[in-house]
Amino acid sequence: MVTTRAIRVDDDVYRRLQSQAQPFEDTPNSVLRRLLSLGADVAGNSDIEATPTRKKRAADRTPREAFRRPILEAVEELGGKDRVAAVLKRVEQKMKHKLTPVDYSKTKSGLPRWSVYARWMRLGLVHQGLLRGERGYWEITEKGRAYLKGQR
Any idea of the CA torsion for 29, 31, 33, 35, to the nearest 10 degrees? Predict the structure, then answer.
């Protein structure tokens, strides 16, 4: 049996650990193991498994409303209509500087949280008439284009 222990590190050490991490792969424990030349995590244990899950705080993530304009701009930049994956890729590029580590954490379904927030915002935009609802595609409406022009 492997014993896990919690340690506290200051912000400088944590940022350095983050800079050494492989996104969506590493945990703080796996980065430390690599830096200390300890090899792979024994028995598949990781600090994520050892840490009890907690509800993500709203303050730790990007608010859903922040996705409104980037979604509309992304669809417009892609010719007014495109597949969901293409739109989400463009939205991520546009919001890269705003997304937090919590936004990049995975949901139970395996999707990054930010993409779930974006999908919920898209649904709201459809209800407001700014996007057209079509399975597999996101399409901006004339009302959506007018919104973009009026918000510049």
Answer: -150
Greater confidence (36 vs 47) lies with 36
Which pLDDT score, from 0 to 100, does residue 123 have?
93
Query: Rounded to whole angstroms, how far apart are CA atoms 68 and 24?
Result: 25
Q: Are 131 and 72 in contact (CB under 8 A)?
A: yes
3-state class (DSSP) for residue 130? coil
- How much is the pTM? 0.62
Residues 107-128 have a mean pLDDT of 93
The Cα–Cα gap between 122 and 133 comes to: 9
- What residue ranges do the domains of the chain occupy? 11-52, 60-150
**60-150 has which fold?**
Arc Repressor Mutant, subunit A (1.10.10)
For 106-109, which contacts have Cβ atoms below 8 Å and span 24 or more sequence positions?
A: 106/24
